[in-house]
């Protein structure tokens, strides 16, 4: 079905997810190389490319840094490249990203980053990837719907090709997982064979050349800022409407003022809905370019306003920029943002509607449904039949859980932290369960069991394991090998059975210097329980590989 949709003929309109529209936009741009590590809400991008696997090279990389490095290599070889990841993946990839901005691209390159306001699938933190613009000086576009997802990808490739710079498209959960009609255009098929031509002045970031590269990067950003001023993705709606709103002061005097709204991303859709519901015709500046911001267009929009509302999710990035710009063109402008808009959690239509009503001094009452019977709170649980239930059962029989520390990580086993399991005393990021376990061991000597999934082990667990062996620590590490990247949609990893000549985890563990290694199918509860008891007392790092496939993999 995916292939039928995404290989459809141009001129038609079809319903696509935002993530699927990104794939279509890349194919219409003639993408030649695609790399990713799966992470919700960006997972469908890689999954869709994987199912098509036609006229371009595609890979699931071991982590986001490696995915970006592979993409950089393809770009240096002249190929049109796309790399996709979620917000925390961008953190992992930063070491590679910042020098890439200095070297610039040879083949145009687009980096998709999906944020998750309200942490629907992101336990670690509520990250706002827009902030990376000021650190890395990377152009960032923000689509609001699937049509813009497709169109912005094509524009991003054009910008990258014109200015020789990677371009980032920042989406959020509501953009990535939104469905809407998308108009298709012609798919371009490119040659997947590139050529790397030696050019140390261009590709090698060493002093003093690296300082020249930074200067060149800043000059590119100034040129892109000029490009942004004329871009159609920055648009003003209802600007010609002179919409004085009246507010009665305490003295009875009536004052006229002019109001406006500035926004970007999915917030724009909420604003349109809110203005319709409130029957208001306020001018709206919708910014498709987050960075570099079109300052002249913003100045022209705000110069005659008395009051402007900034509607954006999470940190007040736009609000700070408008505050800075307003000082030169309208110093008396009242700028309202996070005083009315929450800084925590994703926005919802009712939040935006009630905020605009307050801003415009218009009466609005949101209808709240009062339930007669309270809904019982239910924590997310592992799937019925999940092999991890057998691990939980064995641990609770093998040890006193009040006397052992349990380290968690990113994957289905995050749910170990919920009642009634309660086997998670800390949770941070990919690969961290082992690294933190080592630190606790060295600091306290307490018994500790850390969990790491098979995909997470390949992603970031190996360096932490080497560190624990090298520095003579002795946590018990249980590698939960369900033979897939389960939580994000069952994508393959280097050790998955679906991968020809897959890498055996126990061979890597032994190569890291671990002496006490045992692979067990946890269905063998007696053996599993006895091994936990034995390995927990070892004076060195010990590893149990709990190998039993995810029930969905087993069915396939």
Describe this structure in words.
The chain is an alpha/beta fold and 556 residues long. It has three domains: 2-229, 3-Layer(aba) Sandwich (Rossmann fold); 235-359, Rossmann fold (3-Layer(aba) Sandwich), CATH 3.40.50; 388-555, Rossmann fold, CATH 3.40.50.970. 39% of the residues lie in helices and 18% in strands. It is built from 20 helices and 20 strands. It has helices at residues 2-6, 18-28, 43-52, 64-76, 87-103, 132-136, 146-163, 173-176, 200-203, 209-229, 267-278, 295-302, 317-329, 349-359, 388-398, 432-444, 454-470, 505-511, 525-535, 551-555, and strands spanning 13-17, 33-36, 57-60, 81-86, 109-115, 140-141, 167-172, 179-183, 235-237, 244-248, 254-264, 284-287, 289-291, 307-311, 334-336, 405-407, 448-453, 476-481, 516-520, 542-547. A seven-stranded mixed β-sheet has the order 3-2-4-5-7-6-13, sandwiched between helices. Helix 3 (43-52) links the parallel strand 2 and strand 3. The longest helix has 21 residues, at 209-229. The protein is globular and about 75 Å long. The two termini are 19 Å apart. The relative contact order is 0.09. Residues 241-256 have low confidence and may be disordered. Residues 25-202 form the Pyruvate flavodoxin/ferredoxin oxidoreductase pyrimidine binding domain. Keywords: 4Fe-4S, Electron transport, Iron, Iron-sulfur, Metal-binding, Oxidoreductase, Pyruvate, Transport. Heterodimer of the IorA and IorB subunits. Pfam families: POR_N (PF01855), TPP_enzyme_C (PF02775). Residues 420-545 form the Thiamine pyrophosphate enzyme TPP-binding domain.
């Amino acid at each position: 079905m995916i292939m039928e949709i995404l290989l459809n003929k141009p001129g038609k309109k079809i319903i696509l997810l935002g993530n699927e529209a990104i794939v279509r936009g890349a194919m219409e741009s003639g993408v030649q190389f695609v790399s990713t590590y799966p992470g919700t809400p960006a997972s469908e991008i890689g999954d869709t490319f994987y199912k098509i696997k036609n006229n371009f090279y595609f890979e699931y990389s071991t982590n986001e840094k490696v995915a970006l490095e592979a993409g950089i290599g393809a770009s240096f070889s002249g190929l049109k490249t796309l790399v996709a990841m979620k917000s925390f993946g961008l953190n992992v990839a930063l070491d590679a990203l910042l020098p890439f901005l200095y070297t610039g691209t040879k083949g145009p390159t687009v980096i998709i980053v999906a944020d998750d306001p309200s942490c629907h699938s992101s336990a670690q933190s509520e990250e706002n990837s827009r902030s990376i613009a000021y650190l890395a000086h990377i152009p960032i576009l923000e689509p609001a719907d699937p049509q813009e997802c497709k169109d912005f990808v094509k524009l991003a490739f054009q910008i990258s090709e014109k200015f020789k710079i990677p371009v980032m498209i920042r989406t959020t959960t509501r953009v990535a997982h939104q469905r809407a009609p998308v108009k298709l255009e012609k798919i371009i098929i490119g040659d997947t064979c590139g050529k790397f031509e030696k050019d140390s002045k261009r590709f090698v970031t060493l002093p003093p050349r690296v300082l020249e590269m930074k200067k060149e990067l800043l000059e590119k950003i100034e040129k892109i800022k000029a490009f942004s001023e004329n871009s159609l993705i920055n648009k003003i709606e209802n600007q010609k409407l002179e919409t004085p709103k009246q507010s009665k002061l305490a003295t009875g005097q009536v004052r006229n003022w002019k109001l406006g709204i500035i926004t970007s991303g999915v917030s724009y859709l909420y604003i349109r809905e809110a203005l319709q519901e409130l029957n208001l015709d306020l001018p709206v500046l919708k910014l498709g370019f987050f960075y570099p911001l079109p300052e002249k267009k913003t100045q022209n929009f705000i110069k005659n306003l008395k009051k402007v509302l900034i509607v954006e999710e999470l940190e007040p990035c736009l609000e700070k920029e408008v505050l800075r710009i307003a000082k030169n063109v309208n110093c008396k402008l009242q700028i309202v943002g996070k005083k009315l808009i929450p800084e925590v959690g994703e926005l919802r239509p009712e939040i935006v509607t009630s905020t605009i009503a307050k801003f415009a001094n218009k009466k609005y009452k949101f209808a709240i449904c009062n339930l007669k019977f309270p809904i019982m709170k239910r924590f997310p649980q592992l799937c019925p039949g999940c092999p991890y239930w057998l691990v939980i059962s064995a641990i609770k029989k093998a040890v006193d859980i009040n006397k052992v520390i349990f380290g968690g990580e990113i994957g289905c086993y995050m749910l170990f932290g919920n009642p009634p399991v309660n086997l998670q005393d800390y949770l941070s990021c990919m690969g961290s369960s082992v690294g933190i376990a080592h630190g606790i061991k060295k600091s306290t000597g307490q018994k500790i069991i850390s969990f790491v999934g098979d995909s997470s082990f390949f992603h970031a667990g190996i360096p932490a394991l080497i560190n624990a062996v090298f520095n003579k620590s002795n946590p018990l590490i249980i590698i939960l090998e369900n033979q897939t990247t389960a939580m994000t949609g069952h994508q393959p990893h280097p050790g998955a059975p679906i991968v020809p000549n897959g890498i055996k985890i126990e061979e890597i563990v032994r190569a890291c210097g671990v002496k006490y290694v045992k692979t067990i199918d946890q269905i063998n509860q007696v053996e599993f329980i006895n091994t936990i008891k034995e390995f927990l007392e070892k004076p060195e790092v010990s590893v149990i590989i709990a190998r039993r496939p995810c029930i969905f993999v087993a069915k396939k």
